[in-house]
């Protein structure tokens, strides 16, 4: 990375991470859908949404409606599936915190599935910004929380702006594998964006990132070097 990028990463007091295909090696929604026997249907919907023509929130609503996740089925999934943490992430998070930085998780995935990941990595619940599945009293699927930043298009960028303003971070970094993560580098949002290609490599992210890495060890070295 350039000296300017290194300087921004060293001075950043807050670092936001995408979760699916970044902090974790899998895509939470797809994994849960497969567990519920709706993997192919949901994958088809995801492809349609990515091809345009379906709004972000509408796509989320459609996928959840097909999946019909119950409180019990989500708990059963989590009990039988340990978080698949990407190599080097625990060491990177430790290094960031040792250097006085606060770590946040910003995801289009679900809080229910991100909570065990956050717990494993020592990220407090209040530093999670993600979607929330809502259940009826009997535990059946109800809906999702429309107030969450990431329940709508452009939500990750809005979440990062909110974090920066609320917690007073003068310099903010964002790390992720997708175009919605790259969008977070915007006025009032992330000052520097690190693209991660250890799971998925997307041309737009590789081209647009201030620094693109395929493993987190290099990032940890930069954080730890004085």
From TrEMBL:
GO biological process, one term: L-serine biosynthetic process
Cofactors: Mg(2+)
Keywords for this protein: Amino-acid biosynthesis, Hydrolase, Magnesium, Metal-binding, Serine biosynthesis
Gene Ontology terms for molecular function: L-phosphoserine phosphatase activity; magnesium ion binding
Pfam families, A to Z: Hydrolase
Metabolic or biological pathway, per its Swiss-Prot or TrEMBL entry: Amino-acid biosynthesis; L-serine biosynthesis; L-serine from 3-phospho-D-glycerate: step 3/3
Keyword set includes rRNA processing: no
Descriptive protein name: phosphoserine phosphatase
